[in-house]
Design goal:
binds zinc ion; two-stranded antiparallel ribbon; HIT family, subunit A; alpha+beta
Length: 205
């Protein structure tokens, strides 16, 4: 069962500095972080002109695919003939993050009608199962795809009752919150995989 928001808060209180703040996460250094400090105030970065061609993503243009890479199967917690669900390697700051991918190396726009229908059904099932865990406020489902060419849908469970951990910014808190206990995280993804397998497919737990 995911930790209560009070338990998460206690984790944060144990990790903050004397001003009550968590350390700044690396996201502040990312090229795509859209703001910067100018004269002590946060300002939008200056937009540079478009490049001629975008950089290839992982899994295209000769770059290896993370999802198809040898050894990546150890992170698969559920699979059926066409789809697999993966976890990360370690607990996250937010209670649970999982990813849905086609087994075959396909991007979202490559799906045929049958695969598209399965995709919709799995998205609803997985999101509903994760949102049904105790202490989860909502599950955000995101598909960006700027980093990798192999379709990967993000399922991001946020805790309940933190008025600042909402919407697209909830994801940023994953970088800041101290990771939760390993045994709790393990039990949670195991439960999700088993519940998903009650519909179909196999839980690999
Ligand atoms: Zn791939």
């Amino acid at each position: 069962m995911p930790q209560t928001s009070e338990e998460i808060y206690a984790r944060v209180v144990a990790a903050v500095d004397e001003s009550g703040r968590l350390p700044m996460p690396p996201v502040g250094e990312w090229d795509i972080f859209p703001w910067e400090l100018v004269d002590g105030a946060l300002q939008p970065k200056v937009l540079t002109p478009p490049v001629a061609v975008e950089e290839p993503r992982n899994g295209e243009g000769g770059k290896p695919c993370w999802t198809c890479a040898e050894g990546s199967d150890e992170l698969v917690i559920w699979r059926n003939e066409h789809w697999k669900v993966t976890r990360g390697k370690a607990p996250t700051g937010l209670p649970l993050m999982l990813w849905l991918h086609p087994v075959e190396h396909l991007d979202g726009d490559d799906l045929d009608e049958e695969m598209a229908a399965e995709y919709g059904q799995l998205q609803v099932r997985l999101s509903r199962i994760m949102a049904g865990l105790p202490n989860i406020g909502r599950v955000h489902v995101c598909r960006w795809g700027d980093g990798g060419a192999h379709l990967h849908l993000w399922f991001i469970a946020r805790p309940d009752r933190f008025p600042i951990i909402l919407g697209s910014m909830a994801v940023e808190w994953d970088e800041m919150l101290p990771p939760g206990p390993e045994d709790v995280w393990h039990a949670d993804w195991t439960e999700v995989a088993r519940k998903l397998a009650t519909h179909e497919g196999e839980a690999l737990v």
